[in-house]
Amino acid sequence: MPELPEVEALARDLSGRLDGRAIVRVDIANFSCLKTYDPPVTALSGAMVDGVSRRGKFLVFDVGGTYLVLHLALAGWVRWKDEVPTLPAKPNSKSPLAARIVLDDGSGLDITEAGTRKSLALYVVRDPNDVEGIARLGPDPLADDFTVEVLGEILQRSGKAQIKGVLRMQSNIAGIGNAYSDEILHAAKMSPFKPASSLTEFELELLHTTIREELGAALSRADGLAASELKGEKKSNMRVHGREGEKCPVCGDVVRSVSFADRSLQYCATCQTGGKPLADRRLSKLLK
Q: Quick check: is 160 catalytic?
């Protein structure tokens, strides 16, 4: 799933490509992705694109005061096309194409989603905050107002909840997902199961610094890359996420994984849990 660094880099790249261009039309190839009906998607036709920005993991296209908001979900992506077909895209629920944006110079964007689980969401709204997911976003971790005190309040409010889940919850902190929460906790040498409210003052300051450093470094690596390069760049720089069975680059221990119903987390026991492997909840249930 694209997270804050990739979505921010994607927004910057698309803003440069689309700024000042007019949208000829938006073709919806998979109607399940369109989550709004007022304004209609046809309201975007003929309007100029005034910029593309990011809210959490959402892409926000300002189209003449009407907004096209896109959440790429688990397997969605945006593909720039120097030339797109002149004929409208035909609806096809089996195609990876979810929607196509056609611009006035013949170029455009294909919005695609791999796999059979269709979670990509596209909204056309008068205000980005009309999208529920945006309205409930927590603070942006790279913003100036994301202070140690703000993070401390979030963790204390979360009580004994595992810190991994707290970092991933968008209403707590906007933009961190499964991958970067693994990387942040590894860099901070913290167990993903650590209770959120149990951090010492030193640990709180360390976590705050690590969040900003890890996301900032990832954004620096991604900034300026074409959309087609962002996924590979993210994957190649992960130390533990997606590295189960490989050696930890810090200590050389094996990277372990804990599986849940629809996802998993990766961590290094030596770096993060004092050498003690964490219980795999799904495996534990199978063994009972």
A: no
